[in-house]
Amino acid sequence: MKSRRVVTLTVLLSFVVLALSGLLLFVSPQGRVAYWSRWTLLGLTKEQVAAVHTTVMVLFLAAAIWHVVLNWRPIVGYLRNRSKQIRVLTPELGVALALTGLFVVGPLAGVFPFRQYLDAGEQLKASWEVESGSPPWGHAEESTLARYCQRMEDLERSDNQRLIAIDCDAAVEALRAQGLTVESTEQRIVDIAEANGTTPQAVSTIVLGVARPLTPEEAAARIQAATATGTEARFKRPASRLGQLTLASYAEQYGYDLAEIQSILTTAGYELDPEARLRDEANRLGTDPEGIFEVLNGQRAGAES
Q1: Beta-ladder partners of 246
Q2: Domain spans, the chain
Q3: Could you count the other beta carbons within 10 Å of the beta carbon of residue 186?
Q4: From the CB of residue 235, how many other CB atoms can be counted at a distance below 10 Å?
Q5: What is the pLDDT of residues 196-207, one digit of tens each?
Q6: SS3 for 213?
Q7: Residue 260, class by beta-carbon neighbours within 10 Å (0-12 exposed, 13-18 middle, 19+ buried)?
Q8: Cβ pair 203, 193 in contact under 8 A
Q9: What's the N-to-C CA distance of the chain in angstroms?
């Protein structure tokens, strides 16, 4: 078995996989839409395509480097003139550099046809959102059912000026009536979807089906309760990328005492690794990042002992 052939064929095959996975990523929807609708193409989710693309890239780079080593003499030969003298700036190298530079600078400068090509990709991604819908907030699928019901009530009040009630127990019954298995209101939307072979979007549709307008008496009581407890939360909730933060980076970014934050959470029954992402720690503890902040601000009881 000749190593040169193995390396050449590895470069070829890994290039084909990279090209195909890159094309799939190009036509795939934005991440938030893909996660919400559990988008798949050729039987692969966006996360799986990205994982394949990233790992095969390592194989391609390693094989390509080894291919250059094995073929160094022929490559150097491309730089020789008719007198067998090595010339770095050959016409062939000039054309290769020009083509490479064009495909690097073109997209950065936004010139034709690169800008049109990239715009077409964005339009294609946007079309998936029109067809599949988008989550009400980033990674909404990772919220527990109880948190999802509560936050949808808040969103309707703040964004649409509508006061609605979403009875979480009624939502559980509605999901079960549709043949879905639901363990409790503390189960995450994505877990309910995966356990039942459906999408977070489909689960959300059923949950929102039990929403109803508040009666005048209920609306007045809710406004009064909100006013009575309307003090500003002590620990600020980040506007975005909440799940990506670690407890340590959050404390540093907002100027809080990390030891104090850990003490509050530990007292409530939440032992968090300060260097781990909040999303991962929340999943481990059976809650979501929102729930951690509710506990931190005393808006929610801690973990059961």
Answers
A1: 277
A2: 3-132, 140-228, 247-296
A3: 14
A4: 16
A5: 999 999 999 999
A6: strand
A7: exposed
A8: yes
A9: 63
